[in-house]
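batch job 7 of whatever, protein = Haem-binding uptake Tiki superfamily ChaN domain-containing protein
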Amino acid sequence: MKPALIAVILALLNGCMNMSAALPPPQSQYDAVIVNPVDGKAMTIDELAERLMKTDVVVIGEYHGHHGSHLLQSRLQQALHRQRPAQVLSMEQFDANHQKDLNRYLAGEMGESELIEDSEAWDNYRASYRPLVEYARLNQQPVIAANAPARVVRCVGRKGPDYLDQLSQELQQFLPDEPFMDTASYREKFVDTMTGSHGTGTDAMSERMSNRYQAQLLRDNTMASRILEATQTYPDHQIVHLTGTFHSEERLGTVALLHKRAPGLSIAVISPIFPDDEDLSKMIRENRHKGDILYVIQPLPVEFVDEERGREAMMERFRRSSSKPCD
C-alpha cells in the first residue's frame, strides 16, 4: 500500500477517534448523550427518530428511576410520533392483568390516583412515567400493559414453573403460550450477574437460582408476546417499548424472544451506559455490543456506603416479598 494512501486512512481513523473522544459527557442526571456505536458519533433526538422511522419495534432500555433515561424516552416518543403518528406505547411498568384499568384511564373513566391504586403502578410512576402515558393519552394512542402479573412472577420465583398449573383461567389468559422459552446466552448472563461468575453452589442454591431465572423468563416471554400481539392488533403502527435494560441489552431477553416469535419484525435496541472514565471513545467501543444505539448518562448515586446497612435493606426487601402468599 502506498504511503500516501496509508496516511489518508490513518487520518480518517484518527478523525473518527477524535470525534468520539470529543463527545460531551452528560452534565446532569437529566442529560443523555446519544451515540451511534458504529462510528462513535453523537446524534440528536431528531436524527435518531429519522433513523428509526421505519422500524417496527423500538425498545428503549432504562435504568429504573434514572431521570436521564426517562427524559430521553419522553423526547424520543414525541420525535418518533412527529414522523410516524401511528404509534403504540408498550410498558414493562404495567402488568397485563391491569390492561383494563389502563384502558379506563386513557378513556377518561378514572383519575390518575385511581389508576395508580387499581393497577398497582410502580412507586415512581408520577416522577418517571406520567409524561409518557399522558402524551399517549392526549394523542389518543394505545398503551400496552406488557409485563406478566407481579404475583405470578413472584410465586414462580419462589416455587418454580409448576406454580402456573394451579393458576385460575382468569390469570392464565394473561400469560404466553410458551412462558419459559429462553436462549443459552441469556441464561449465562443471568447466572453470571446473580452469582458474580461463581456458579450456583449447592443444590438448594441451584434450585433457587433456577426458579428466579424462570421468573425472569416469564417476564420476558410475556413482554415479547404482548409486543407481538400489539403489532397484530395495530398493523402499520410503530411500537415503542419501555423496559429495564437487562431485558433488552445485547438483544437478549425480551428482544431475543420477540425475534424468535416474529423473525420478520425490525427491532431497534437503545441501551444506556454509564461512563466509567474520561475516555468516552474507549467506553463506547467496549459497550457497542449492548445496543444498536447507545446513550450515555451519569451513574446513579451510591445507595449505601455502609455495607451492613445495604445488606439489611436488601434482606428487608426479601422479607417483604416472602411474606406475600402464593396460594
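notes: The chain has 13 helices and eight strands.
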